[in-house]
Records
---
Amino acid sequence: MYVTGGRRTDRGCYNDSLLLLPADTPIHAAGRWFLQSGIQEPCGGVARYFRSDTGWNANISTEITGYGVSALLFLHARTGEPAYLDAALRAARFLTRIAWDAQLCAFPFEHSSNGSEPAAFTYFFDCGIVVRGLLAAWRATGETEFRDVAIGSGRAMLADFRQRDSIHPILSLPEKIPQPSQPRWSHLPGCYQLKSALAWRELFHTTGEAEFSRAFESALNTAMASAHDFLPGDANREIVMDRLHAYEYFLEGMVPALDRPECARLFGDGLTRVARYVDEIAPLFARTDVYAQLLRGRLLGEALGGIALDSGRAHEEARAIAELQIDSQETRVQGAFAFGRKEGREMPFANPVSTAFALQALAWWDDWQRRAARPTLETLI
C-alpha cells in the first residue's frame, strides 16, 4: 500500500501535515521520501533499501538507521520542519532501545521485522556510523540516552575490534569472534574504516577520554599508509566502482586532519584519482553515492583544507546526481535517489544512503553557489 492522504499504511503511520511539506527542490523531495515512503519502519528503524521491482523493503540495518538519524537531523537543521526531528528521534530510539544489546555492548548488523532473524554479526563500520548518528541526536536534543549508548558502543569498538596493526571488520555474536577474511572489501580491514573511526574522535571531544583520540590517530596513520593500494583493487570495472565508494569513506575520514599538509595533499590527490576512475567506468556502471561523495569531498576540501575546487567538475557531478533522482507517481520511490545506473538503465533500488549523501551534496553545492554557509565535518552524513 502507498501513502494516500496521510493515513496508516502497511509500513507505518503518517501525519496529514507531512503531505504539506514542499517538493519544489530535489532536497525537499528527498526529505519527503524519508518521511512518507515507508523506508523507515514503524519501529523507527530504516530499511537497507526498497526494491521497486518487488515492492518490498530489505531488512532494517543499524548502519542505515544511523545514517538516517544524521540525514533527518541535517534536514531539520536546514528547514526547521518538526517532522524531520520526530523521525530522527524515532530512529535514534530504535537504535538505543531495540537494536542495542546492552549485555553484549553491541549493535547487530541487521534487524528483522518479519520473524526471520539474520545471522548474528556486528561490523566495526556500522557501529561507527551508529555512534556518530547518536551523538548528532544528543547534540540536537541534549537527551543523555543517546550520548550514553554512543559512549558504550565506542568503548566496545576499542575493546573488541582492534588488533595490533589493523581493525577487525566483522565479529560474530555473541562470542565476538573475528570472522575469516573474504575477498569483498567490506569483509577486510582497510582504509575505508577511517570513516567510522571518526566516531572515536567525536567521543574524545565528548568525554575527554584520551584513548579515543589515540585510537583515531592510529587509524588515520594506518589508513594513510595503505590507501594507495586500495585502488583499483580488481580488474572488474564494476567492482572498482564499488571500491571507489569505500575509498571515498577514507577521504571523508581524513577531513579533520586537512590542516596537516600531508593529509591535504593526499586528500586532493585522492579526489583526482576517484574522478579519473569515474570518467572511465560511469558509462558502464555509475553509483549515485560515488558522485555525491566526490562532490561533498570537493566542498569539504575547499572549506576545511584550502584545496581549490574545480567548479566545472563539481557542476557536472551535481548534474549527474540530480539525474539519478526518481520521479514517479509512486510514493514509495518518489524523490528517492536510485542506487545507480548500469549500461544506461536505472537500478531498481530506492536507497537511503544514496539519498542521504545526494541531498547533502546538492544542498552544500547550492550553498556554495549562493556563497552561503560552508560545510562542516560535524554535519557530514
---
Amino acid sequence: MELYLASIRLKLEATKGIILSLTSSIQYSKPLIPVEHEFTITYRKTDTKTDFSNYRLLLKGLSEDYNQVPYDWQILSNKRKIIFHISYVNEESFLEAHAEIQHANNQIAIFINPKAQSTDLKIDPLFHPLGSLLMVYFANISNSFLIHASGVSLHNKGYLFTAKSGTGKSTIANLWQNAGATIINDDRLWIKKIENRWVMLNTPMPYYIQSPKLGVITKVFLIQQSPVNELHSLSGLKAAMRLLSNCIQHLHSEEYANKHLDRILEFASNTSIYDCGFLPDQEIVKMMLALP
C-alpha cells in the first residue's frame, strides 16, 4: 500500500494484528507532484508501555481539556532516532502509540498499544494525532511548510487565507466558492515551491474525506473579521512574522527551526501578502479580485 503527501511517498506495511484501512486518506494513493523522498512505515501492535528514559525530551504538547483533546504528545531523540509519542486519555481504542524515525534509512516503525489486545486493530495509516505530527516532519525535510489556512483556486490562480482558528477561514473560502472557486482546503495547507512557483496542496484530514487538490498561490491574505471590508499590502519582515505565527511548527531542533524560518522568509519575499479585514459578504471577494 502507498500514500502520497505532496512530494513524499509512503510505503506502508502492517504486521499481524493490524489492518490498514484507508478512510480519511483513501484518495491519496497517487502523486500530484513529483516524488522527492520515500519512507517505509511499518505498523506493529505492542502490549507493553515503552520506556523512553534513555531519550532526550525535545518538545511536548499537553492537552488543556481531555474531553476535547484526549491525548498528550512528546518528541524525543537519541543519536539514531526521533520518537513521536502519543499518550491517550479516555480514548476508546488506544492506550498509547509512538513512531520511531530512523534518519539513516528513511524507515519508520509505528507501535500501537491498544486497549483490546485480542482483536485485530483497524486503523487509518495517518491516524490522529500521530499522522499530523509526522506531516510536520515530512514537510520540513522536503523544504515545505504547513500552515493553518484555507485556500481556493479560480481561473488557475490560487488565493490563501490564513488566521488563527475561529477567525473566518472557512467562511471566506465559502464566499469564494459561491463565486465559482474550488476550495483546496479550509483548515490546513502544505506549501511548497515547485519550479519557481509556490503551490498549496491539501492533505488527509482526520475527520472527513477529500480528494487531493493543488493550486498555484497568487496572493495571500491575513484575515480577520472587521466592521468594514479593507485590504492593506504587507511586505518584509512584518509579513513574514505574521505568516510564521499561523504555521504548524512542532519544530524540535535548532536546525529544523532555522530551515523552517528560511522557507517562510523566502515565501514572504516572493508572494503578494495583504492584511484583510472582512465582512461575510461577496464584496470582499470582488475587492480581492480587483487587486493588481
---
Amino acid sequence: MKTRALQYKDICLLPKYSSIHSRSGCSTSVIMGKTQFNVPVIPANMKAVINTNIARWMSASGYFYIMHRFGHSIIDFIRLANVEDWQTISISVGVQEHDEKIIEMISEIDTLHVDYITIDIAHGHSERMQTMIRFIKDKLPHVYLIAGNVASSDGVYDLSCWGADMVKVGIGQGSVCTTKDKTGFTVPMFTCIQTCTGVINGGKPVPIIADGGIRSNGDIAKALCAGADMIMSGSMFSQCTDSAAANVVVDDQIYKQYFGSASSHNKGHRKHIEGVMKAVPSNNMTYHEKLKEIQEDLQSAISYAGGASLQSLRDVEYVEV
C-alpha cells in the first residue's frame, strides 16, 4: 500500500463562525463508561509519568488515569485505593501468567473493587491479547476494559469483538519509543486515528484512545478532529514538577528523566529493547496546573471550532501544510 500518512505537525485546523460569548463556557468533559471526566486526556501509564500519589489526586479531582504495571504490586495499589474509597480505580495489566493471577485475585476477593482495566502490550492485535481479553471479561464482566495498542481498523474491530470496551491506538509514535526505527512498523498519528476511528461493532462506533505523538496542547485538538475519543500523552506529563520522573539538574535547569516502557531502564535488561531514556526540560508546572492549561486551551479550540463542546472538533476541516 502506497499512500501519504500525516503526523499532527502536517495539518492545521480551520476556524469556523462562533456564537460563543466566552470560551470559558465551552465544555471539555467526556464520559467513559459510567463516569464523566474533566478532560479527554490521560497521562501515559508509564513509570516515569504516574505514581500512586498522582493517581490518588487525579481520582479525587475528576480526571481519568491509568496506573502503570511496572515494579510495584498492583494488588497493593488496588487495596489502598479501596481502603481510601477512591472515586476511580484504574489499573494496567499485561498478558503473562502473573497478570492472570492478578485478575483471579480481584475476582475472588470482595474488597478488591476495580472500575477500569487496561491491557497494555506493544502489539495488541495478537492471539495473546484475545486470550487475555476473554479471560478478564469472564472473570470481571462488569469492568470497563481498555485494550491496545493497535494501528489498524482491523485491530480495533477484532479487539472490540473479543470484548474490549475501548481500544488504544498508536504504534511507535511516542518520543521515547524506538519501535519505528527498530522494526520499520509505525503509522503517523493523525492518519492512524483516522484509520482507526468509526469502526462499528454491535451497531455502535468503537471508542478509541490516541496514544503517542502529542507535542503540544494543539495536538490534542487535532487528535480529536481526527476522531479520537481520548488522548494519552507521556512526555508532557513527565515534564511536570511533581511527575514520577526523577529530577536532573543541568546548568542550573531542572530536567526530568523520561523513559519508554520498552527501554532497558524500565525492563532492567537489554532484550528486545524498543525504547530510550531522555532528559526533558521541566515545564515548571504541577499536574494540576498542566491539566488546567490543557482544559483552557481545549476551550479555546472548541470556540475556534464554532461549537460549545468537544463534539464540535469532529466537524472541523483541516489543511495539510
---
Amino acid sequence: MRPAPGARERFAALVAPGVQEIDLAEAALWIAAEEYPDLDVAAYLARLDALAEQAAPALRAAGNLAARIEALNRFLFQEQGFAGNREEYDDLRNSYLNEVLDRRRGIPITLSLVYVEVARRLGLRAFGISFPGHFLAKVVGGEETVVDAFFGRVLSRRECQERLEAVVASPVELRPELHLRAATPRETLVRMLANLKHAGIRSGDTLRALGASERILLVEPGAVSELRERGLLYERLECYAAALADLRSFLERAPEDPSALGVRARILALEERVRGFH
C-alpha cells in the first residue's frame, strides 16, 4: 500500500510536535486518505458540519443538558442510524472515518469520533475516553455523561464499573479521574493507528502495519516501544538496515525494558544475516 500523494505529509503537519490544537477529524481523514487516494477531506469535514446543522433544531428545543444529550443520541443513533458493526467488526472500513460517515457503521473509536465532532459543533463539551477495551465518549457539564457510541446509549457509572471489571478480569474500583478522563487527540490517533497496525499484522499485510507504525511515531515521536515494533516490521519486510537502526535506537533509549534481552538477540541475528550478504 503506497500512501496517496501528500496524505502522509498533510497528516505529519497536523500532528507535528509543536502543534497544540490537533483537528482530530481532519487527521483521521488523512489517515483514511492513504487507503483512499481520491478522498476529498474537505467534503467529509463538511459532512460533519451538515450533521450538526440537522441536529441543531432538536437540541435548541431541548431544555437542560440531559435533554440535549438525549436529542443528540436520538438524532445520531436512531434517525441517522449510526451503530456498531457487530456482524463485521473486523472489516477495515469500520476504522476509516469516511467509510463510517458513508455507511453509518463503525467500531467504538470511529463512532465516538463522529459523536464528539458533531457534539462539539453543537456547542457541547464532548471528549473521547480511551476506556480499556472499548473506546467511549462523554459530555461534560455538571455531571459527566458517558456515551457508548457503538451501542448508541448512555452508560451509568455502575455499567462502567462492570465493564472495567470484565476487561481486567478482577475486582477493581472505577476511578473517573483515571478511567474516564478525556483522551487527548494524540492518544486517540495512536489508538486508531494501533487498531490498523494490529489488523495488518493479523491479516499478514505487513506494509499496512508498517504504515500505521510510522504514523504512530509521527504522532508520538517519544513512543520508544513503537521503535521496537517498527523495527520488527522492517525485519519482516527484509529491510534489515532499517530494522537494525530502529532496534538499536530502542535499546539505547530503553536498555532496561523487559524486552531488551530479546531485542539484543534479534540484533545479533540481523547482524549475522547482513554479514552473510557481503
